[in-house]
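Section: Multi-chain targets

For targets with more than one molecule, the full set of components is provided together so that the structure can be written out for the assembly as a whole rather than chain by chain. Components appear in the order listed by the source. The example entry contains two components.
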Amino acid sequence: MSLALYNTLSRKKEPFTPLDAERVTMYVCGPTVYNRVHIGNARPAVVFDTLYRVLLSLYPNVQYARNITDIDDKIMRTAAELGEDISVLSQRYAQAYFEDMAALNNLEPTITPYATQHIPEMIDMIERLIAKGHSYVAEGNVLFAVQSMDDYGKLSGRALDDMLAGARVEVASYKKYAGDFVLWKPSADNEPGWDSPWGRGRPGWHLECSAMIEKHLGETIDIHGGGQDLIFPHHENEIAQSCCAHDGKPFANYWLHNGFINIEGEKMSKSLGNFRMVNELLEEYPGEVLRYVILSAHYRSEQQFSKELLDSAWRSLDGLYGFLRGHEPATAIINQDSAGYKALLDDLNTPMAISELYRLAKEMHAANGAGNVDLESKLKAELMGLAGLMGLLQQDSEQWFTLARGGDAISAEDIEELIEKRKQAKTDKDYAGADQVRKDLLDLGVVLEDSREGTTWRRS
RNA sequence: GGCGCGGUAGCAAAGUGGUAAUGCAGUGGACUGCAACUCCGCGAUCGUCGGUUCGAUUCCGACCCGCGCCUCCA
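Its structure, encoded as tokens over all components, is:
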């Protein structure tokens, strides 16, 4: 039993073998911080966080880096509009990103490198690329010469000429070849910039990842992840920079890419105005609901996203937490032989693993009904172990049902008070009065559940 | 034009060469003073047409439909 991952490089599922089983390295492209992030940014974070958790269950040391791009033209434009320094803007949104990601139960990566803190490393890499004949200076720009690399395009599977044939963007005059991309570009006096051998300027987008990976993880890493749209040009160019700087040494052995999210059946895009920002969704839904939706589809698939799905996911989690409610706590244990764990090892089949969550929960519930305490706690431990690998069921079940669910909800105290009133009514055989309390609370989104032990309540 | 992906029940979504998991919704019943929870039961022949095969939703081909990327969008 071992981990298998679909590798974009080979377009096949492959057994995962790290270079060093004692130290596994993974890098995932993080956000450009000029705004709040949307749900599409959350997908890779959740997917690769899940992979990180799985890797942690297999290897003693997993180095997971996710960068913050804090220098970029969009950042510069937004900062200029707001009349503030780019560092102020980027720090604000980086912080917001961390908060959003934490709300989605994402663990903190091992390393969070910032582009602007690696300017010297980037300049150093450019100098090496120039020295090795892979880059040239033109009008203050430093460009990477893609033709200097034999297998440029191997990740995206395209030939150079094919790429250029349908290019939609005009070619800058200083490029020797249309496919060449910028490593360093000059900054105007009123633009942020850093001194370099080629004058004051700023790095091209792709360079930061190559430089930061080299510094923090090494010349060759095990896993590199990101959204599908990054395959070309971003990851292709990272490969070009790193491989050429390292004399052809492999850059990343496994390339993983998550699919896109569709909103109400269509692509999420600015022009359609249907962006879903994570923080806005979090005002209406617990982060775990968003996470559940993301993990309910396989990471490589295109994924549907809608209010109906969020509501459905919330009810689904209610079901799971409902099974947990009233069961004694148990320490999470990963059952390595379980179908759920194997599903995760099989290219992160989270939909399958989630279905196992339900099977375990039902079996646990049945064991409880049969009075088999040992089996019950064993199954609960396994359930929590599997859920933990996905970052799900991380809340206390009692709290899950009693926390306010948006809007101005009735307070827990008031609910308890009404339940007492109803109890008295029932004692007095005033069932009409008791039913009225039930109905009133239901109108406020509170469901009452009577049992031998008394009345419990939950928000729905 | 080039490269690539997908079409499975109302909504989502796995999966398999031997007649298709799971969740939500719906629905019938048990339980309940009523209800909720829970439990038992009910629904798809897998885009279309061919081919290979004893047998295909699963392999191959064509077609239809939807979609992504082609220089800075997760």
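The domain at 4-258 of chain A is CATH 3.40.50.620 (Rossmann fold).
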